[in-house]
Amino acid sequence: MIQKLRSIVRWIIRKVQQNKRGFKVVLGIVSVAIVVIVALAMLASRGAGLIFNEVMARQTMLNGTVTVESIHATPWGRVSFTELNWTNAQGETILEVPSGSFRVNPWDVITKNFKAAALRELTLEDAIIVVDMDDNMRLDFTKPSPDVKKPLNEVSQQPVPPKALTERKTTEQREADIEKRVRNFNWNGQHMDLKIYLENCQLEVFQKNRHYVMTDINTEIDLDSDKELKLDFSAGKFGGTAIGEGMKIKGTIDLRGVKHQELPTLNMQVHILGVDPSSLGFGDNIHDPMTLHVDATGTLAHPVADGRVSMPELHIPALTFTQVIGDVHYDAGDLEFKSVSANVYNGTLEAHGQYNIDTRAYTFYGEASGLDSSIALKEDDFVVPVNVTMTFESKGARRDLRVWGEFNSDEGRYILIPIKSITGKFSNYQRHLAFEDVKIHLKYTTISTDALRIDDGELTMGALNITSNGGSNFIFHESDFDTIGDEFDNISNQGKAAQENSKRMSNDMKGLSEGIKRNKDDLDATKSGIDDVKDRFDAISERIGNIKFNK
């Protein structure tokens, strides 16, 4: 390689010696070009700083002042900066960006004819961005809340937005407040055609009574304000109104009707991953991750969506569901769940219901069939297929969940006692589980009770009625239950003893059978031995008969 370089250098020297004048011309052009490029770079950087300051002083889109610690530009329109700070007229810091860049028309940089609407590309790195959207989804920027520095599971679910009053208001009242307040971002219809990149940013969102803090934001926005906005949004873990593992949104927003005072329309694919049900108000200790995949359409102010909801597992008190999957429809804060199916204790569940994001109120209806009681109760001696209809209802408070329903069973058994069916009703509210009209139908009797409660783990029972098919009736009170329990224990023990005796009898019969077989084999062997002896005696007798004696 070195030898080749030396050859090239010698060739250049020879050519220069042969044509010194031409070389000087070329060298002069190259030198001028280098000087021009360096001058343009210096001019661009210096011009970018001057233009930036001048434009920030004249622009009306952003309320307040925007400053940077350093800025550098190339003649080709790329401008990079560090420590951007946007402060509004009230002295509040709206945005801080450690580093980023933007791109404009190169001629605008050189001629100092730079306008904010002439931006072609904007990149923000490691920024904390806070947006506040009104009921029509008009966007404004505001200062971060203290929640951006908290762990995601401690982020407030419904905080007061920085510019809102504490009392709840109607849509008309909120719109009136919006018109009065000073906005930090004012887009007055200027044409904007640019791409926006967010790299490793953090996003806080206020919208009505909803609040989210999202991490690991990596997003690409392709905006033409006269046509459409293309969005490719990706977020990591998030907290607030809901807690989840991630979010992806991809699609378009049609802006062509905005000039005619029409609301933008959207066409988006939304994927919300690993949502914690407890963060939505579905009980205190239900943390099985839920995933939503929906297609969103409609206007930006009133989106509607349809898709699927799924959960690998769902654990609620006394029930464990697997392979939960169903349809979901979203409209105006309401989530309607339809055709939800799941497996539960070797049986199946079909369910539907409705949930409101803002009030957190919900009602769900479910029908489970073929539940294996031995799995549910972890009791191998109690084998009865159970069918249940149930309703879950909450007005929105975390501890306001009410559950009630009815159950019935097919034929089964308890130890050796055959059971024809079990029927009854149940209700559960704040750790108070009650059973009513419970009837256990046996072959010759029916056991029933109208009062059975479990309060914080303590069992309370009313009168227990035992009615025979012949009409006889026995009533047992709570004081008799210990005796009944002992009798059932005795029955259980006797049943187990009977099972053990049956097992031993089976083993004994097996041993007897093997003994008989061995005795038969011994008899056969004995008979065979006797036959052998007989054959030998016959042979000896025949030999003796053949001996001749002399007289």
UniProtKB/TrEMBL annotation:
Transmembrane segments: 21-44
Annotated keywords: Membrane, Transmembrane, Transmembrane helix
Basic and acidic residues composition-biased segments: 143-152, 165-174, 515-527
Higher taxonomy: Bacteria, Bacillati, Bacillota, Negativicutes, Veillonellales
Chain positions covered by the region annotation Disordered: 143-174, 495-527
Protein name (record): Membrane biogenesis protein AsmA
